[in-house]
Amino acid sequence: MSPPVRFGLSVPQGDLPPATLRAIAGTAEREGFHSLWVYDHLEDYPSPEQPAVLECFALLGLLAGWTERIRLGSLVLCDGYRNPALTAKAAATLDVLSGGRVEFGYGAGWHESETRAYGYEFPPPAVRIARMEEGLTIIRGLWTGEPTTFAGAHHRVDAAKCLPPPVQRPHPPITIGGGGEKLLLRAVARHADAWNYYPSPLPEYEQLLCDRNVDFVIAYDAYARSRHTNEIAVLRRLAATPAARVRLHPVQHARDHIVYAVDRARC
């Protein structure tokens, strides 16, 4: 039997009044949405015509205070924007204060212009993905509540502690975002419970993987099985239509968890 499809809502992060954001969150919870999601961008997103962007963690804290049951997710946090140990601490605190409602999304980062504008390095994809994996290793270690020591090529911690740890055990669900078939999906299989997918339609992407590299598909399956899981959920974001109508037919092309976006221009 297939798992049920869950629906989330992507909260607009422009220059909106707090009352509007609170109304969106409250409506989503009353109407039975599974989760609220925010992205981790700093400026000019989703386009330069919309330069104002509310910061991810600050907004998640407000959403947690305004709601009681709906889950709260990041789609997805950029490893390069924060020390991963501090990210682990912030996410653990949010999980504790929200009563165990965090959905933890993490990624290697892709938005080069905003990254460089804020003074961060933007290395090649292979380096960013390796850095992300080191970050997740530190985060998962800290979330055990035990002192964590790790010395990698990009990140390090020395007997760091994250107390209190997250309420959810063994840890909040981890989503990795991205579409790279050579490195990124291997990281998903190693570390994640879900994959935030946003390239071409999913059946076409699956066929692309098979056409390009059969060995990769076998390796991906082996990684997943080594973690004693037969399922890695797929989380997909769908934009609202201009008329703000919800069209349900794309659901058949996604898996497990669908996130709809609010049209910011109509708020």
How would you describe this structure in keywords?
11 strands, 8 helices, eight-stranded parallel beta barrel, TIM Barrel, 267 residues, two-stranded antiparallel ribbon, alpha/beta
Quick recap:
With 267 residues, this protein is α/β, with parallel strands linked by helices. The chain has helices at residues 18-30, 56-66, 84-97, 112-117, 125-142, 184-191, 202-212, 214-226; strands at 6-10, 35-38, 71-74, 77-78, 102-107, 148-151, 156-160, 174-177, 194-197, 233-238, 257-261. It has a single domain (6-266), classed as TIM Barrel (Alpha-Beta Barrel).
What report would you give on this structure?
With 267 residues, the chain is of the alpha/beta class. It has one domain (6-266): Luciferase-like domain (TIM Barrel). The protein contains eight helices and eleven strands. The strands form two sheets. It has an eight-stranded parallel beta barrel, surrounded by five helices. It has a two-stranded antiparallel ribbon with strand order 6-7. Helix 2 packs parallel to helix 3 (84-97). The longest helix has 18 residues, at 125-142. It starts with 5 loop residues before the first strand and ends in a 6-residue tail after the last strand. Residues 213-231 and 238-255 have low confidence and may be disordered.
